[in-house]
């Protein structure tokens, strides 16, 4: 028993060290790697992925885990063994050659996507995406969960979630969001804002200074993290006290700031998982959705909130060498405006972007959508959901990195996290009286500690639904999100 | 036979992919990793090193290589099998746990060295260095080559080289260099230069612009390379077309420029090794000394030469927003002046810095020098060899990264490469008439192609001595270097 536990810990340690190494290979590929490195990088990642897969499916490990599962374990070890068992079972469904092939193809596809996007050339990416869709269909067959083939992919990001559950949830959300947009668009405030759109001007170096300032304020120290640039902002964990976030500077001068605060939320989660879980499967979040709830919390509930900006506006102006008044800034940050780009979307439109991608992924997995028709289907659906459609691929079907990385089934987590964030915010407000005033004084300690205690400290011991239920008294509830939006945007637009 | 070859190639491919990954872990540690990452990084490198070691010493690989060695192989495969056999034999002398331990300790020591150096605190580094010296003594015993224990470490960098051979060579070099310095110091030019030292002023951003410009001119494309910053400039190969170089900005405003040109020489070598050797042991240089000959060639023979500067001075001024006249620039670049820092040393003093380190390493290996006494011994010997001694540890015993990385036996390669570079330059001048004028026109193609053909294209097929002998008609000859120095500096100082 003791020996089984030691063996399982040794395996988990080596696996997590290799996973961190893959994260560095990824991070580097997305930040600094010269173009010429892409084919070696594909081979390196493929080799390491296959090593991880081999370890995860090793007979001696599985035998030890099964023995431990039959015995009565207690405490964290019980959670660890259960989690490890599930992960092994999932890995065992995929042949090693498949894992290697998928890793190689996605690494090549990522480089192709980068080029295709910057050249606005869908044809450059098309053969790669076709290959990846094929591989993902194959993966879904290997995993073989009941129901829609998509379920087998979704499960990697949101354990237990299904297309069948998401469809009505998203349908309901869509109806409410479209109704909200309809109400907002009728208001005088919206019409006046649209008639004289006059974007803020913030120099690039000031944008970066502000990004660096705000992550420190929310508690992200540069001892354990750093901020770089990549085509697509992301967070990745490269070691126990080494979490990297990225951003980029776009036309919208607030994009870098908001996306950085978003990634800082992810990083705070990663850095707050207790050291006792290091090098085990519990050093994780129960789901991508719960992880996203943390980034959304800081990006939206804090970073787009009135309280935060009342406190921060003066420092923002000082540090940025700017002179923007509070009302103008708060209005601009929360401006509802149909846009092409998901990661630049306002809170109201955001989930519609996700629903669109969810539909595309379902279609690609079912085979009812072909890759070659994807751009036109994308554009038509954008028109229906958001009311506009892109004039080029880079702002349309090529905008997101996910498909190039093979991350089919990931997008729903963004919507789930967005909803959870509103639920958590509401619970926090009830739980800690005066927290709103704290935030409006630039004191984020209590909010951070509350999130640490309620979420981060648990590692991956519990399922997402359990975590949310324990904190909020109920599971996923899109109505809470819709209520949050309605109240906030009624205050701004007066509908 | 066919199967043995396939097996050996598969092993080499996986090993080289893991080695490239270790290089990325290293590169990142020296460039971007946040401080908090150091303990995870040590574990990651240790795991990968131990995996490489396990693969390299795998029974099936050794059996296949021995079978192939007994058969008559021809062409590149013969070279590959011989080289691989030697590498395996060397690896087999080291126990896996030792390799793991060494990797972990050096990774931790590197982070400690960085801190110690920036805090100018030898005590912070001392326990790490003591540990590493112990491990290196142990390694020397495992390797067990005849003669001085140092030989077993040296062999990793310079196959076949020994302390016994180096001692008289360095003795001879030292005598000549000290005599040269004596002559130079008596000249009026030297005295006038010393009496009114008036360093150039080049803004940091101009220094970086010039670095980026010059590496492009000598033929380093950013498709396959990039330039970053690290405490200690270095070159590392992370993939077939992914070679990274680093520099840093120091008080000497020419340091970044010269060190970048130096590293570019290494990078040009790495990027010119033919693709056919990719993922085999032949994708390498026969020795660190031969590699260094390429960096020295570009740094010294080209980058400190009259021809190059006649051509480049105007562009240098334009790009840097400067106004420095040719004579002043050429004089400053080649100013002989006793300095504390090896990598900032002029050509004349350079090898004395190496000889000092060689002596320290011999003493540490023998046990005649204790780590705790190292600073005072260093300082005393600096006084004897260079005529000055450092006022702090950072400029003294803590200045170089090598010991923290466990690279004992590396320093002699710098002197060997410096001498080879002079020999190669002399051969090039004889071989290609008009090459001097080409360089003075900013046309480096012929020189680069000549080096490619004579050196880079061979990969690691031949021993260094063979390569040099074939090109220069003789092996290592320090007299050629002394002659080069004498002629050049007589021109400048008129002794």
Brief sketch in words of this structure:
The first copy, chain A, has helices at residues 2-31, 38-56, 59-70, 75-92, 96-119, 122-143, 151-157, 163-185, 188-195, 204-217, 255-272, 288-302, 306-320, 326-333, 347-366, 374-385, 411-431, 435-440, 445-454, 464-472, 478-493; strands at residues 225-229, 235-239, 242-247.
How would you explain this protein's 3D organization?
2 copies of one chain form a homodimer. Chain A has 495 residues and is mostly helical. Helices cover 66% and strands 3% of the residues of chain A. Chain A contains 21 helices and 3 strands. Chain A has helices at 2-31, 38-56, 59-70, 75-92, 96-119, 122-143, 151-157, 163-185, 188-195, 204-217, 255-272, 288-302, 306-320, 326-333, 347-366, 374-385, 411-431, 435-440, 445-454, 464-472, 478-493, and strands at 225-229, 235-239, 242-247. A 3-stranded mixed sheet of chain A has the order 1-3-2, sandwiched between helices. In chain A, strand 2 (235-239) and strand 3 (242-247) form a beta hairpin. The interface between A and B is medium-sized, with 34 and 35 residues.
Structural class of chain A: mainly alpha
Give the helices and strands of chain A as they follow along the chain: HHHHHHHHHHEEEHHHHHHHHHHH
Shape of chain A: globular
Assembly state of the chains shown: homodimer
Mean pLDDT rating of chain A: 96
Number of strands of chain A: 3
Low-pLDDT residue intervals, each spanning 5 or more residues of chain A = none
Strand order of the largest sheet of chain A: 1-3-2
Q: Biggest β-sheet of chain A, characterized?
A: 3 strands, mixed
